[in-house]
Automatic annotation (TrEMBL), chain A:
Reaction it catalyzes: ATP + H2O + phospholipidSide 1 = ADP + phosphate + phospholipidSide 2
Binding sites annotated in the UniProt record for ATP: D357, K358, T359, E450, F492, K515, R549, T629, G630, D631, R715, K721, N745, D746
Domain P-type ATPase C-terminal: 768-1009
GO molecular function: ATP binding; ATP hydrolysis activity; ATPase-coupled intramembrane lipid transporter activity; magnesium ion binding
Cofactors, names only: Mg(2+)
Lipoprotein recorded as keyword: no
Principal localisation: membrane
Membrane-protein topology: Multi-pass membrane protein
GO annotation terms (biological process): phospholipid translocation
Superkingdom of the source species: Eukaryota
This protein's name: Phospholipid-transporting ATPase
Stretches assigned to the P-type ATPase N-terminal domain: 2-37
Enzyme class, UniProt record, top EC level: translocase
Automatic annotation (TrEMBL), chain B:
Transmembrane domains' residue ranges: 21-46, 278-300
Cellular localization per UniProt: Membrane
The species this protein was found in: Paramecium sonneborni
Keyword Iron: no
UniProt topology in membrane: Multi-pass membrane protein
Family as reported in the entry's similarity comment: Belongs to the CDC50/LEM3 family.
Gene Ontology CC, one term: plasma membrane
A Pfam family the protein falls into: CDC50
Keywords: Membrane, Transmembrane, Transmembrane helix
Domain of life: Eukaryota
InterPro entries per UniProt: CDC50/LEM3_fam
Protein's name according to its UniProt entry: Cell cycle control protein
Keyword Lipid metabolism: no
Amino acid sequence: MITFFPLNLIEQFSKLPNFYYLVIAIMQMMSLISITNGQPVVMGPLSLSICIQMIKDFIEDYQIRKSDDAENNKKIYLIRTNEIPRIAKWSELRIGDLIKVQKDEQIPADILLIQTSDKWGNAYIDAQNLDGETNLKCKNIQQNLKQLQEQTEEYLSALKMTIKYERPNPYHYLFRGIAEFNNEPITLSQENLVLRGCVLRNVNFIYGIVCYNGHDSKIMLNSMKQLLKCSHLERTLNKLIIFIFQLQIIMCGLGAFLNSLWQLIYNSQLSYLEILNTEFNHNFIKNLFLQWGSWILIFSNLIPILLLVSLDIVKYFQGILITIDQGTYSSEYDIKTSVQSSNLNEELGLVDYIFCDKTGTLTKNQLYFKCLTVNQKSYGKEQTIKNEKVSKSAQVLKVDFSDETFFNDLNQTPKRGPLHEFLLCLSLCHNVIADNNNGQLLYQAKSSDELALVNFARYCGYTFEGLDESNRIIINIRGEIQLYQMIHVFEFNSTRKRFSVIVQDPQNQIILYTKGPDQIMENLMNPISPELKEKTWKDLQEFALIGLRTLLLTKRILPLQIFKEWENGYLQACCASQNKDNQIMNYQAKIEQELELIGGTAVEDKLQEDVGPTIQYLKDAGIKIWVLTGDKVETAINIGYSCQLLNKSLQQIIVDGNNEQSVSNELEQAFQKIQDNNKNSLIISGFALQIAMKPEFSSILMKIAEKCEAVIACRVTPKQKQDIVQLVRENKPNVTTLAIGDGANDVNMIRAAHIGIGIKGNEGLQAAKASDYSIGEFKILKRLILYHGRENYRKNQTFINYNFYKTMLLVLPQYWWAFCNGFSAVLLYDQLLYESYNLFFTSLPIVLYAIFDQEFAADIFTSNPAIYCINKKQKLFNLKIFLYWIFNGTIQAAILSCLTFSIYETSSIYNGMMSDLWTTGAILLGFSVLISNIKIIVCSNNYSIGVIVGLFGSFIIYIILFIIISEKMNQSEMSNSLNASFAQQKFYLTSLLVIGATSIFDLAFTQLAKWSQYAKVEIQHDKVYSLIKKQHIELQDEQQQNQPIPYTQIQQINFPKSHIKQDFIDLAQSQEEN
Amino acid sequence: MSDSKGFLHWLFFKKWHPVPSVGSTIALFSIIGVIFVALGIVITVINNNIQEVTIYKYDQKCSPVEYNKQCSFTYKLDQMKAPIYFYYELENFYQNHRRYVKSKSSTQLSGEEISLSDAEKYCEPIIFNKDLEQWQQAVYITENNEQVPKQRKPDDIASPCGLVAKSFFNDTYELSLSEKNIELNQTGISWPNDKGKKYKRASDSESTQWIDPENEHFIVWMRTAGLPTFRKLWGRIEQDIEEGEYTIKFQNNYNPQMFAGAKNIVLSTSGPFGGKNLFLSIAFIVVGVIQLLIALAFLIKKIRAGPSFGQKNE
């Protein structure tokens, strides 16, 4: 708290304009060059500006501190040797402490498991905060520590154990350590470590030893340092300030030089100035420097002092407007858009790349059972059951199925037949945990697909009720309990790509159920009739086409003898000391043969509303969209089609090699392919990406990606998502990237991109918290970018330009006038008026403009992406447009200066009285105020009463201040000048002339620019896009109506088999090895 | 935005969104152009009714040119209507130079005593009596511009101090037509309120000051001009004058050679917008014509580019 003030002060002065004004203040105190009699008058506005910025920083710091405190003050049960166990704060935790975590509590540190309430020593944790995956992860106690399971808390608290482990590192899946327990070394792995940020589930409590705490914990090491994001415009602004400063130095130097020269030449004519030989002014060089200093002081207002503060204010209110805009409100989820970093408002108008998470962003992350195909018949494509019937069984989640024919067929052959087999397989062949919570049966599973399948079985009356003590599966088939002895489970992994169970049915038959994707299962099956195969495969392809995830279900009845024989080998393999995993896998593959087809399932990952049209619009706005997903290649492509990212006209390039050589070949080929084709799409697997992102390939990857309208990266990890964003940023430093995601696994990506957008969805608020803008659903992105981004960019750009323009209009008349006073640096204006110009006379209207102006109605922006394209091309703004404004200001300053002096200084004003320098100066300043305010009228596209009031109010403030100075401040040079100014007709006549000679021409140029801009963008309204939207809906309708799909279309989606047959290396594993 | 209804909504969200078409813009520019040209013509007419006579380098009209001497010459003037303002005009005198304008003390001029440090700060380089002109050190100039001999201590702070005061223009004029004096009213030539407020004589003016700050010629001089050629009001003729050969008698004190310039006399009447200002009328006409040209350019462009030009398809 105490350090805040000085530290913040240093920070404030490290900002360019603030430092500049500090230097000016010091210069103002040097009496030789001072134009203010040695008073640092600039300190007033400067301290005002700094105060506002400080208060803002203070509030922000305070909020961070509060949330830190909240985290630090969370409670945990702490057991320390020789201390009474107590509830302690998280911040008290030290390495080596023993803690007890209860069910549903957050883990406060990375802890080594030593006891759990689960009898097998397992602990289920929800690691959503870390990797964004919703499924539960299983951690366990190291085998050799299991004896601790039985011990009491007192024993544990007195336990002495030496643990050696690695230094803190950010890798979630990396932990190696050795514990010495009973003089026996025990190897520890990541399986034994429960990480901070996880939540304990399904287990009543665990005990653990703190290994890493505080900032050493993996979640903290993983959370990328939140860098202050700075928009392109702000960076350009800094450059502009430097540019203007250089301009100032040069112009002042020139002025000083001319003054010295003038004095040198005309010295003999300037006797009334009484420049003595001994004085500084007499020496050419000394005078040069003195005048230079004076000129710089006069020019000090060239850099608008309130620029940064008022820009912050503008952006803050723009943020509020984004929030309260109905168009950014997600009515479906009742979520308002919220703005965390309003300083990026205009950056939204420059987006070149969107990096998009799939699950939860494009899709709703709610898997629904949708369709099935059994015995040459497919169900689920039509929704025939009426609503009231559906609501009856609505308590079953994750099912979106209401095909009456299915139930009719099912009821025709109760408890036998292919549909019975199908449902039985669904309810048996899975890895779901049933949790009976107060009579309510809840399922939890690693995979959401499985949940949907098991729930569908339940929906049809085949309820899985969990396992009993002797590992029997309890199935409730329409009220009848059946017990199936579970014998073996072959887990799914990415090499096998299938899941199997071996069970013994109530008739003591041993059955193997296997499910997996059709490409895998095809080769493991018994030959079946061609009709069945054709129909089933066709159905699956149809399902896949509309973006459904398909699985094939098979079974094999194992004769006892074969099973026994196999099991002997298998159990040996399980105990093998060497190459255990491979042996087990071989044995598993051995039994998964001669499978018989049961049927196929299709699960839908529902797309968010309007994803397709939104993506289409964004693509048309010239934005490249990269989808980064953890999904398989096939699923990703399916989703790509359903959300219009991919379409028939795009040439697909697939890179998914599994070693460096093949990836490099594929990249080479891809590079050849894209040479003469501009419509491409790239699909790249995570592993291939890891290779392709190495420095030697990254340039070719970028070249390919540049030519692709869409890029889909599959099976990527959170870290890779971030790396991809960084790769693009590094290779193309001028582009603006936007990352959008909803889960904790997107946080890194969101932070790495220029703009991070979080979707407040099912996967918690991590992404939303880390993001700069958080929205309710994907489709809002369109309005946020095309309308708010575009408009804010336009307005903020004008805001900055205008701020320099108006200071030109203030400062430069003095420079032009200097041609008439020997370039001696005279401050033409009253000091008070001069300093008020930027503070009061011209600050409010431009702020109101930048908040409220609107070029077109919002709908026109969102339906005409072409406008956005133009906007982006205006990135050239930095110099060309800026120079135009500067030039404009310079010319207008000259016109003002020339007109005012010619009219006021050459003839009398009234009663024969002549004006004097200070009155003319004050009137000139009034014209500057007038013209710079009218400039806003010229620039504005629409006018509200508030803006008009602000405009005239500003001018009235000037008049009031003029009158006060003139009438009340005798010491001022311009006192008594009221009679010579507003009291005379001459003032109004000259005002009219000045407006006519500046603003009216501005109006002409602005109109011309607008017209030529309209000519470039044909504003298309919704014509084209409503058509696209309609087509999209029709396409979906078509698919739902089960119309035959052209073969070519299927061909395109159908993934080449050769790719599937290649062995995938699981990325998760490879990451672990890192 | 619905929840922000009410005053703020009315203030900021009820917007008027004009969409100027090419046609209306052409009309607008034509109208403004015509108005400007018309105003320019009106001002020209007004200007023509204002009479202004400049007698250039009047000091050269006496021969030999001697300074600090009285001198007279005759000049033919047309008939002029009262009030006629009598100005002196200096050329190439930079009253707007930084060093010059800074060099005075407002405090001192408003009748207060200033400290030495203030005098040094504000009045550089004319601080002491000894820094003044010789004649200024030995005189007291009254409110009515009469010179009373008065000796001052050279090391006292000059009052008024500074360059502006020191360079005080001290020519005086008399105007007569065939021996008949025409009165030049020298009161009320300074800005209202300046005298006695901004410029106030010190309590013991005569002994401490070399000129009474309430001397109106002084006040006029102290209001520094913005351009190197400037005129300052010296007197007012409150009667109409006839055509004739007028005699102008003047005390030739101020030497324009020290600034390599000239001194002129200007006699001028006044109109509703002050003195004669040709620039104003020309500027109005030029701006108006340019606006008409813009309207014409738009019209040509519109005809050339066809009806699509400037159409905002809304």
